[in-house]
């Protein structure tokens, strides 16, 4: 990758920008020794396939040899990883600070004595939350319910929304008792105990693969086929035209159309919504964007019609967009009711602020573990790393640099990079490719592990420690693919 190294030097010289690497001992660039997968990886895949489904396998990794921004395989190949375990590695492979946290007595105790938090919380659980998960809580949301995965976080948020809605319909009295009819009908999955309510989601959105979350997932049929689903409404997500600066009026009309449709569904759907759920950037569905005005409009609708607004930050949260939480870009005067999180947090759950979102009785929002102190301790260390290295600002700066480089490539290869999007959104950048799957496959050959979304999008999901010299390597690799 000599040309990439030269590009780094030229970039630094031309901008008077001196960049100190966050991982001084990580590789200086990719290293390709064999085809991918190579012989040793093929043998390992064959062995694994006997006991585990490998049909979705991307590559067989060796994490003990992976470091920083680089992922290694069993054949000595080392790739710049801008997919990062589907956007879930925040501060690098084999991060020394996380290793210290992982090998601490506190972590060992949390792992081997994993508590049933609802019944037997450990003595320092409040401190772990206050110095970690709640330290970075979105503005206006000062409580958390912890879970295990992004799907789990959304399912729990839906349950909270339904319980809140029924409480409001009963007059808001937290001490109101359930009627005998409610109690008995709930056991038969009938109303009024099982109320005729819904969660409104958006076309091409993704919120998970569990039963409730899957009913709000609208990105790919393969997720939903053969699975019973709730009859819940879906509104259109804006289909914007790019570049945004050249289509201001058309995009404003499109967003208003979607807001009007959303309001119509809120007011007419035969199962009234208790909440709407929205991603700041639709990720699995193709990296679809909307303006702050659209999201402000949704917040106004949710208040107008007395339903909750859930913001799904499972993929966009924890610094990826140049803000710690992507919805901070909207500058809402009224915060969302709930914000769900997972992936880069390495734990999961939902934030909330309204005390009415606490169930009125114990065991209503409950499971055996209710999260995991070990993962919460790891997130606390991730937060410390983000603060120590100023990684949210790094992501903002690096994203600007990377976007400008991709703009130049799109001018040079207009047929390869279409609808480039993500300006001002950190490294949360994507473009459409007429030969997307081929680009993803060939990227490994030039030393880059990259992912896709939707039907045509190439999506970038680098770690927060991704820097300008990594961007140069990525741009150099893309140029090689486009030229051939």
CATH class categorisation of the largest domain = Alpha Beta
What letter string, H or E per element, gives the SSE order?
HHEEHHHHEHHEHHEHEHEEEHHEEHEEEH
Report the total helices: 16
* Residue fraction in strands: 5-15%
* Rg: 23 Å
End-to-end separation in angstroms reads 17 Å
What is the strand arrangement across the widest sheet?
Answer: 3-9-8-7-6-4-5
What low-confidence regions span 5 or more consecutive residues with pLDDT below 50?
1-15
The amount of helix comes to 25-40%
Structural class: alpha/beta
Domain tally? 2
What profile does the largest beta sheet have? 7 strands, mixed
Bulk shape: globular
The CATH superfamily of the largest domain is identified as Type I PLP-dependent aspartate aminotransferase-like (Major domain)
User: How many β-strand runs?
Assistant: 14
Overall mean confidence score, pLDDT: 95
**CATH level 3 topology of the largest domain:** Aspartate Aminotransferase, domain 2
